[in-house]
Structures are given as C-alpha cells and as structure tokens.
Fold this protein.
Amino acid sequence: MSFDLQLAGKRVVVTGGTQGIGAAVVEQLSTLGARVVATARSEPKRAVAHVHYVAADMSTADGVGKAVEAAGHHLGGIDILINVVGGSSAPAGGFARLDDAEWAKALDLNLMSSVRMDRALLPAMIAQRSGVILHVTSIQRMLPLHDSTIAYAAAKAALSTYSKALSKEVTPKGVRVIRVSPGWVETDASIDFLGGIAANAGTDYEGAKQMVMDALGGIPLGRPAKPSEVADLIAFLVSPRAESISGTEYTIDGGTVPTS
Ligand SMILES: NC(=O)c1ccc[n+]([C@@H]2O[C@H](COP(=O)([O-])OP(=O)(O)OC[C@H]3O[C@@H](n4cnc5c(N)ncnc54)[C@H](OP(=O)(O)O)[C@@H]3O)[C@@H](O)[C@H]2O)c1
C-alpha cells in the first residue's frame, strides 16, 4: 500500500533552506514533487535541481520583502510556508554578555523572520481558504541553556507562543499552523562544532558527542536526530495527510526533554 503525501505540485517556501534541517526539508519536498523556493544569505553548496534559491537576509524586513517578492514571481502563489531559519551566534558568558544588540539579533532571526513572512503571505492563503505554516522552534524553549543561548531560547519560546496564537486566528479561515521542536540535530554545522570540542578535550568525535549529550542531561535514544528525520516529520505535517492537525507542537529529540 502506498502512502502518498500528496505534495506533488504544491507551492512551497522554505526559509533557511541551504544547510542543516532546511536543506533536508528542501530535498525531501522537492523529491516528493513540490515546487520549492528556498531562502538563505548565500548560495547553497549543494543545490537541489529545480529549486529556486533566493539570497536574502531573513533577519531584516528588507530581506523578507525580497524573499516574498521572489516567491510570488516564481511560484505565482503559495500553499506551504516552512519557517526553518534560526540559530544563535551569541557569545558565551551568560546574561551579562548579552547586550541589546545581541537580544535584537536573536529576536530578529528567530521570531521576527517568521512574523514578517507569515504577515506577508497569509492574506493570499486566507483568500484561497487553504494553506499551511510551519514554525521550527527548539526544545530550548522549555529546556533553556544559559551559557550563550538565553536570548535564543527566549526568542524560540516567543515563536512558539506566537505560533499557537496565530493558529487560533487563522485555522478557522483554512490555514493550519504547526510547530516542530527539535532537540539536538546532527547537522554539518554541529559536526564541525564537535570537531572543535573533540580537539580541545583531547577526545574523538564519539567522545565529543557523548560530552554534548551529557550536557543536555542525556538523550535516552543515545544519539542526536538526523536532519532527514526532522524533514520527514515536517513533510508529513505540512502534507494534506495531516489535514486535521493545527495549533500543535511536535518534539523530535530522542526523549531529551525529561517531562511532557
Ligand atoms: N541543529 C540543531 O541541533 C537544532 C536544534 C533545535 C532547533 N534547531 C532549529 O532548527 C532550525 C535550523 O537549524 P540548523 O541547525 O539546521 O541550521 P544551520 O545548519 O545552521 O543552517 C541555517 C540555515 O539558515 C540560513 N540562514 C542563517 N541565517 C540567516 C539569515 N539571517 N537570513 C537568511 N538565511 C539565514 C543558512 O544559510 P546562510 O548562512 O547562507 O544564510 C542556512 O541555510 C533553526 O531554527 C534552529 O534554531 C536546530
């Protein structure tokens, strides 16, 4: 028996679509026959055939405007918006290292990128009485780390609350709004990061991996998730097969969060 996700021909925008989870989502949806526009600041190292890439800084209103215009031009409308972009480059050292500029950076990238994209693209979805918006949050919204990611964790918590509120407003108008909350995902960036930890601690890659899992309080599954596993979950959630799902957050963390 086939399990067709019915994504062929769907018009999809993926933010942060050239690396990590976003790149895996772009690849998966494109393989399933969706028409995909992906945004990032730089060109992808491995471009997926038939995907249109837009260079735009999604942490600014101008960048979002550019992405929206390009999506309209290339897709002629939208069915699915997947807001993946996010992250943190804040310095370590706790609250005192986070000045107003660091807070603004965290909020612009992790919250306002989605708020601005949704605000621009929702009117068309509401007019056609169908659409899906997905927000990628993080388990840090409920399990925050304090060394360098206080602002990131708070921004993801705000994103989650915003997403829930939005779902209440627009689900009755035909637009589903969903969240996916990953724990540690073994992206290329995190593989590079572990290389640095391993070198500093005089251990190998597996030793560094164990150190990070210990810092998270352990991962019962014994390993981080793969980007493709997060992409599989997202592909199902944005597909018509998940039509009765809205306003909910799906955690994918191998059991890291000890409650809920
Ligand atoms: N990896 C994890 O363990 C993990 C855990 C929980 C949640 N998450 C969340 O999952 C999402 C994806 O994370 P990831 O680790 O897969 O990301 P990643 O590997 O660091 O890739 C980030 C993507 O976003 C783009 N990007 C970054 N800043 C941008 C900006 N200002 N404007 C436009 N594009 C930008 C990057 O391309 P350019 O650099 O070329 O712009 C790249 O395509 C994020 O929201 C993150 O918070 C990740």
The mean pLDDT is 96. The two ends are 33 Å apart (CA to CA). Residues 100-128 form the longest helix (29 residues). The chain has two domains: 11-185+225-252, 187-222.
